[in-house]
Amino acid sequence: MGKKRGHVHNAPSNDETMFSSQDPKPKRIYQLWPGNNRFCCGGRLVFGPDASSLLLTTSMIGAPALTFSIRMAFMIGKTSPVFHSLILIGSLLLIVLDFTFLFLTSSRDPGIIPRNKEAPESEALNMLRNTKLPRTKDVLVNGYTVKVKFCETCLLYRPPRASHCSICNNCVQRFDHHCPWVGQCIALRNYWYFICFISTSTLLCLYVFVFSWVSMLEVHGKMLLMVITDDIIFIVLILYCFVVVWFVGGLTVFHLYLICTNQTTYESFRYRYDKKENPYGKGLFKNLLEVFFSRIPPPMINFRDWAQEESDSEVGSIASELDRAFGPRGGRYDMELEIGDCKNNRGGLHLKTLEYDDNKNKNSNIPGNSSFDVRSR
């Protein structure tokens, strides 16, 4: 009998065990991001925390639209095949466009602003301890004085037109509103797609409404009672589209008004620019150009970048100072601090924030391309 071969298993040495425990696998920024966003495809897609509402929105659009398309497909072989074929192609095109704009609106970074690790200046941190902060700071935008606020959650001095979304827990550039139907903030980088989404939704409703009537009258004649009793599918589609078009159509008209006057939904309800001067208005033609023909700026955060790790003791000291001054950092405070060059760290997160320089106002990458400078009151 031959000898049995011995199987030798090399146990990891103490050095290897220590190295593996002290040097964990590096993580990307999206894996450590402190906001409430949901990331897919390795951080390439950025959704809001209520992204599950997309299922409801998709079903409300797709169910009636696809039902109409299937009904048109069955009618091609009965009467006017060319006419109904063209109607079918038009409905399918609108459906594809609508779902495409919905996906681009909900899965795109709306303009999230990087967080800071600490308050912009050491003097400001001392002021945090004493809770003696100026309530507002004046900012000059296109010759008008507006007030901007310091975000206690993100520890940064918000740019003009930016706001902190309490649902996503992020400061966002040119914040318009958080839309529960798309499960995402509507802001600087996805506003154009949102306008296209609600516009195509309105067109799709009108399209199904009109051609449902036309198809019924063509097949069943012009006797209204006979039409109602013979084709219940078209009747349901007509009633559904009649109700929905008031919502999406009204929303589309409202946002066209906001575009023409260069306002956001947040500004329209809070600041009432129709009763006072709008510092961002540039005239009808330039306002339309700014939304429809301006290049969408690149994201301020590449969520797929590797996060740079720092010591936990430094992070703990910063958090404890803020907690002593104002309690848990989950709360929101309307406070103003000086602008500086800062970085953010939470669990190894190391990010760079906006830099504001009066000498670079003309080339500033602020939403709306507005020049500004900061003045203390």
How would you characterize this protein structure?
With about 375 residues, the chain is of the alpha+beta class. The chain has eleven helices and 14 strands. The strands form six sheets. A three-stranded antiparallel beta sheet has the order 4-3-14, with no helix packed on it. The longest helix is centred in the middle third of the chain and has 30 residues, at about 190-220. The model is unreliable at about 1-10, about 15-20 and about 310-375 (pLDDT under 50). One of its GO terms (cellular component) is endomembrane system. Its EC number is 2.3.1.225.
Mean of all residue-level pLDDT scores: 75
| Head-to-tail CA distance between termini | 96 Å
Strand order of the largest sheet: 4-3-14
What structural category characterises the helix and strand content?
Answer: alpha+beta
How many individual β-strands?
14
Helix percentage range: 40-55%
- What order do the helices and strands follow? HHEEHHHEEEEEEEEHHHHHHEEEE
Radius of gyration over alpha carbons?
A: 28 Å
Broad shape:
globular
Strand content bin: 5-15%
Largest sheet: 3 strands, antiparallel
Low-confidence stretches: 1-12, 15-20, 311-377
Tally of individual helices? 11
Keywords: Acyltransferase, Membrane, Transferase, Transmembrane, Transmembrane helix
GO cellular component, one term: endomembrane system
Catalytic activity: L-cysteinyl-[protein] + hexadecanoyl-CoA = S-hexadecanoyl-L-cysteinyl-[protein] + CoA
Domain Palmitoyltransferase DHHC: 149-270
